[in-house]
Every structure is written in structure tokens, then in C-alpha cells.
Fold Protealysin inhibitor emfourin.
Amino acid sequence: MRIQVRRTGGFGGIERRGEVDTSARPDAHEWHALAERAVADGQRTPKSGVPDGFHYEITVDGKTVYTADPRLTEEQRTLIQRVLKEGA
């Protein structure tokens, strides 16, 4: 599974991207479950958030969803943090 996260917005407006390929990871099943829940709760079109908040584009195996602060689910927040940390 290939998981990509793109974060835009924020006070500085700096874009950040991360990507994780789970195919060779021993914890792949955890990533898959988390990604499936995060994508299930996403929107198909970009949504507006709060002023100076972050906007996120989450792509899992070619399927893209959008979300924005402060409307992140716990699964989305966890997935975004993990991908941006490990996939930078």
C-alpha cells in the first residue's frame, strides 16, 4: 500500500509532503487498517477549514480524500502525523 499526505496552508503557507510504502514493513497491517479508516472519513472535494489552519490531501493507493483542521478524525490525525514523520 502506498500512502501519501500533502499538507498546505497554515500561518506560513509552507507545503509539506510525505509518502510511505508499506509493502516491506513488518507493521503493514497496522498502516492498512489506519489508512482505510482515515480515507473512509475523508471528503472527495477540498473543504475549507479555519483561517491559517492546515488542509490535507490523503492518497491511499490512488484514492484521494481531503480534510482540514479542525475537522480531522483521530485516525486521520494519527495517519497524517505518522506519514509526515516517517515519509519525509
Q: What stands out?
A: The helical segments are 28-40, 74-86. The two ends are 17 Å apart (CA to CA).
